[in-house]
């Protein structure tokens, strides 16, 4: 049965391949012994989870009114499985008899059922074991909250290039872990367009669609899928005519991309001869190859934390030195801006358990990024020393993320001085004049940018977080992604304010958020005075082409007019005019 799902287009391109469902890890649950007095509470927790999943199925079915009727039938089947006493009653008996936790009880029961299904000769009935697993997985997820690290691996029988990862959710650590398996694409039920998971998809140059709501529930392992990452569409079991159409589109896209690649050695200069710096965002040493391939002038943002995500402990100075050394060497003399760890929120080195901390209600507003670094000066010093040690090997700058208070810069500069003086004492060479810049990604920093200008050598605008914090929209939450708007007048005002204030004191300012890599926004940003753009490498040729077709003297008056507008429709209309 063929059907189509719609989600958020987060990484463009077309992929055609087989579904590779990610489920097992969710079903790896701990076995806990429950105190006798808590057994009935555990049974009630199980009942509540089953009821919640039942409600989700019912509302999923209602929201699919008008979709192909087979999807409704499919959800009915899952409702039936859930209602079967083998799944809805037997686990309660297991909880009571074995005094165990609900997750473990339902997984034990599932294994019994799956083993029975697998003995059946009839292929249709045998395949129902997938449905049982999917239903149980949903209940387990409900019982545990969001799944943790999912550990994605291509099966031995298939090549990553032919597989499309289908998951409920993927953390940045999950994506980093499967980066080297070269999957054709990935799709998830949750996640926003500027979530770090989406950013990684763009960095890997593979199409991705997030926020699909129910893909993980509706798609079966090995089904053929077309992922249209440009339109945010998924076609499951396409008919031969659609498949042929998409094969053609895919090869046309590849031709267009290879034409753009011809711009690799061209200079990014506007029609009125203004030279623009095009830099790359990278996440690990091996990304340097893609950066050089893209024709970038250097690296504008090295997100160092990605190398160490999910490993369980903080990396030592030596480990960091080795990773940064490899990266700086690969730059072949090009400049590189190394950002200190932006950990916390969705990016963790330590697991929740080993951190031994209670979960925070607002992790994006909590101890993350520079706040976390300053709270652990020993680790921060190790990182600063590692960066200083590689500063002699190339053109290295340091970038501090998520600054909001002047005192954070003062403390960072004091620690940097401490790192320098310890290296001097050890007679280790480093660049004494290493430049240090700050990310402007908190509205307070954008409004009071003056205090940053006085203390730093350069600025880099992180629009992903700046938009998140200004508009109060979680960038990773697909439920509010329609409100995540880079063209909101407040965002445009803040960007223009940062750029023009920096310009007045000749302070270099670049942009490394996702806005910098969107060719539809290139002219708008040029007109605001931006001259340094940093983006995922694959996007550099398209932005370069736009720059080469732009005349800043023509653009500037239109952008000034846009900055006076407050009506979203009018802003979009003028932007379209600007891009004509
Ligand atoms: C940003 O916030 O725009 C940014 C570049 O940082 P990150 O996406 O890593 O949070
Ligand atoms: Mg950020």
What are the main properties of this structure?
single chain; 580 residues; alpha/beta; Glucose Oxidase, domain 1; Enzyme I, Chain A, domain 2; TIM Barrel; eight-stranded mixed sheet; eight-stranded parallel β-barrel; 25 helices; binds phosphoenolpyruvate; binds magnesium ion
- The radius of gyration computed from the alpha-carbon positions, rounded to a whole number of angstroms, is 26 Å
Q: Which structural class fits the helix and strand makeup? A: alpha/beta
Bound compounds: phosphoenolpyruvate, magnesium ion
Number of domains: 3
The largest pleated sheet is described as: 8 strands, mixed
Q: Give the strand line-up of the largest sheet.
A: 1-8-7-3-4-5-6-2
Low-confidence stretches: 146-150, 352-357
- How many H/I helices? 25
The CATH superfamily of the largest domain turns out to be Phosphoenolpyruvate-binding domains
- Average pLDDT figure: 90
Number of DSSP strand runs = 16
Shape: globular
